[in-house]
Each structure stands twice: as C-alpha cells, then as structure tokens.
Amino acid sequence: MFYIIGLGLSDEKDVTVRGLEAIKTCSRVYLEAYTSILMVQKDRLEAFYGKELILADRDTVETQSDEILHNADKEDVCLLVVGDPFGATTHTDIILRARALKIPTRVIHNASIMNAVGASGLQLYNFGQTVSLVFFTETWKPDSFYDRIKENVDLGLHTLVLLDIKVKEQSDENLARGRKIYEPPRYMSIPLAVSQLIEIESLRSTGTLDPEKTLAIGLSRVGGGDENQRIVAGSLKELLDHPKESYGEPLHSLIIVGKRLHHLEVDYAEEYAINRDTWRAIVKDVYGCTALD
User: What pTM does this model have?
Assistant: First the structure.
C-alpha cells in the first residue's frame, strides 16, 4: 500500500490518529520537504512517529518517484506531506503514477492553510481562486496571478495568496556547471509579497490592488498557537510599512480582502487591524459595507 499522509500545519502532534497508525506500519517513510515546512525539525518527527524519515526533495518526488514507489505493491510505504495531501499538484501526480503501476493507494487528510485561513475571520465560502506568488528576479516577474486576483475582486471574493519558498535551489551558475551546490532556504515575507503586488499594480493600473484602498490580511505560522501564530490586517500600504518583525517567523500567507464583506468578517478581522479607524473607513467608504455598529 502507498499512503500519502497529511501532517497538518504546526508540529509532530498535528498528525491524525489514523495517519500515525499508518506511519507505524510502513517499512519506508518519506518526508516531502519542498512544497511546505513544519515548525519543528525532522528529529522531533522521528522521535514522535518512532520511524526514521527519508527526506524527499523536488527531484525525488517529481522525477524519481519510482524510488518512493519501489515495492509499494508488496509492503507499506508512505509519503508525509505538510498540510493536506491534495494541497499541491505534485502529490496528485504521484498518486496517478502509483495507480498506473497497480499499487493500492490511500490518502489520509489533515488541516492545511486552505481552510485554516478562517482564523482571519473571513468566511471560507467567500474565497475565490487561490494564487501563488513567486520570488521576482531582475529578468523574471511573472504576473498571471494578477488576472486571477482581478477575477476574484470583480466578484467580490477574497483571494488567498500562497507565498514562495525556495528550498534546495541552485544558482544559475551552479545549475549550468552541474554543481550540486544549493542556496540557503528562502521564505517570502508578507512585506516582500505586498511590494511585488504593488509593483505589478503600477504596471497594470486597473485599481485592483490600489495600495491605499485594498484591504489585506497577513498570516504566519497559522495553527502554531498564540506563541507562534501572527495575523495582521490593514491596507496594502499599511502592511508594507509595518515593521517586518511583527509578522513573525515563516511560513507567511496573504489574503486580499474581497468587497463582498459580511459585517461579522469586518468585526472579527478588525481585532488584527494595524489601525482600526483606517480599517473601518476603508470598509465603509471603499468596500461599501454599511452594516457596522
């Protein structure tokens, strides 16, 4: 049996009982280590699960899946995934590969940022398409995400923006020379994400992401408890100017607030506002939400 098991958002104790039972039956346990990260190190997971973990990087999962699936038709093997197994298309692909090899598969779900964003106070059924935002370079600034955000904004829906992480990445020079030398991990911060959004808005000029009039909510380490989790709300400009340390440690995510706001969403998210007066003013004057106390 090939299991793909969600680990949740925070630490070793977020695994479900069903997931832990499956892990203990497996002869090989792989930990996918590039689409997201937990808040604890590998040794903490090994101690709690009672199993040695094999780190599976991008190459292993995407191009060497045969290694992971080897003998999975005869013994139990699992791939551990931060969040929920279907949070990334990579995981769908490996399940399809297993099925093509006639290997029995089983998915064990868990919490992910896709539903934990409800911690912001915004209602999940008011979210539209989720988008990903990658690190810009001097020569590469993809902006297709902007069209998806605009579609959501035009419908009044919120947008969850997933921020890029770079783990075990090579520089262009090392890649060209075939040297297996990797850059230090990088995790996109909320201020950097906001600056990139504003940069593309300045080029598109549709007003979709007007820095002064667009509300957003930054989140970090969601599910990590009061000592880790941070939620900060305000206009894009306020988020950009807010002290970087106030956002906490990675991973960070960002929500662009849609105009189909319910007053309960306004009231709940206001608790995290940088400036409550500004928050209320934009909600009333720009978003047209008048059902406020």
Answer: 0.93
